Amino acid sequence: MGYFSSDADPKEVMRQKRSEARAIGTRMNVLFYISLASVGLAVAALIKVPYVSILGLILNIAFGIVILTIPSDSGEFRNSGIYYLISIGLQFFSNYAGVILFVLVVTIAAAVFSLMYMYSFVSATSDSLVDADYGLSSSWETYRTAYTIMNIGLAALILLLLIRFITGEAYLFFLLCFSIFAIVLQIWMIVLLGKTGRSLIAYSNLPVTDEPETGSRYGSLRKNAPAPGSWVCSCGKVNPGYSHTCGCGKTQSQVARDKAEKKMARTASTEKAPAADSSTIADQSKKNLELLKELKDLLDQGVLTQEEFDSKKAELLKEIK
């Protein structure tokens, strides 16, 4: 999804997310049907139906154009569409090249652009699913890993054949295995495209409320929490634990500090309230102690420096006294 200012109206942000989810979901459904048509053409090619290769090229070009039209603030969908069209062009060109070495170079280049396409496409798709279906977002990441393993393995197989480390019979056997793996991946992607389209469309139909969205999953109506280790930026985006910087530019440390400062600001405003009775003072002291514990946790995690912690601690202890 796009990244929005933390000062924006929450309902307006949610409406923009719903609108973007519908646009992405609609195009994912188109990609799903194009992929199904490609499977039909593959079957037709087995029975030698005429003009199948031309129709397949047209479908591949249409697939890339649809990806180019998917909205994305980061531009990852646009980049993935460009990489995909380049890889398709190189693959088509390699079919008509005569020199074996030249064919090999073009094929390797096509594989590189194919990997670049997959990385950009999965990253953008996974990001668009964070609010709609976090589990499906993780499934795309798993798919990308399997896709990468297949391509690296195929490249290694070709290299072993070139240096004559394996025989032609062994090469054909492993090539058959990789072909079966590629078919499984293609079916897997078609399933993921269908689920992604349905999930994003369903998410876009949810009512706009004041409830914050932090990595919710459609279908459980926000009962599922974000994945363990993930953190939520103030802009609303859920980030994986290994990423310390959000797409909006804020770091995990900055977000933690902002939250601590907001709590202290609320504490200070409460302190200024007139005519506080003894129970209110006791409650305020309890809140200050809880906030002090949270600040200590931030210090232990390395989010706050010792000087920052000591300064905040002195302020809170002064208020308690």
Structural summary, described in words:
The chain has 321 residues and is mainly alpha-helical. The protein has two domains: 10-204, no CATH class; 251-320, no CATH class. 71% of the residues lie in helices and 1% in strands. The protein has helices spanning 10-46, 52-68, 76-94, 100-128, 134-162, 168-204, 252-271, 278-301, 306-320; strands at residues 231-232, 238-239. It has a two-stranded antiparallel sheet with strand order 1-2. A hairpin with a 5-residue loop joins strand 1 (231-232) and strand 2. The longest helix has 37 residues, at 10-46. The protein is elongated, with a radius of gyration of 27 Å. Mean pLDDT is 77; it is low at 2-6 and 214-225.
Quick take:
This protein has 321 residues and is mostly helical. 71% of the residues lie in helices and 1% in strands.
Count of separate DSSP helical elements: 9
How much strand content do the residues show?
Answer: under 5%
H-E order = HHHHHHEEHHH
The termini sit apart by 47 Å
Helix content: over 70%
Radius of gyration: 27 Å
Strand order of the largest sheet: 1-2
Instruction: Describe the global form.
Output: elongated
Number of domains: 2
Give the helix/strand class.
Answer: mainly alpha
Ranges where pLDDT stays below 50 over 5 or more residues in a row are 2-6, 214-225
Report the strand count.
2
Defining key terms:
321 residues, mainly alpha, 2 domains, disordered N terminus, single chain, two-stranded antiparallel ribbon, 2 strands
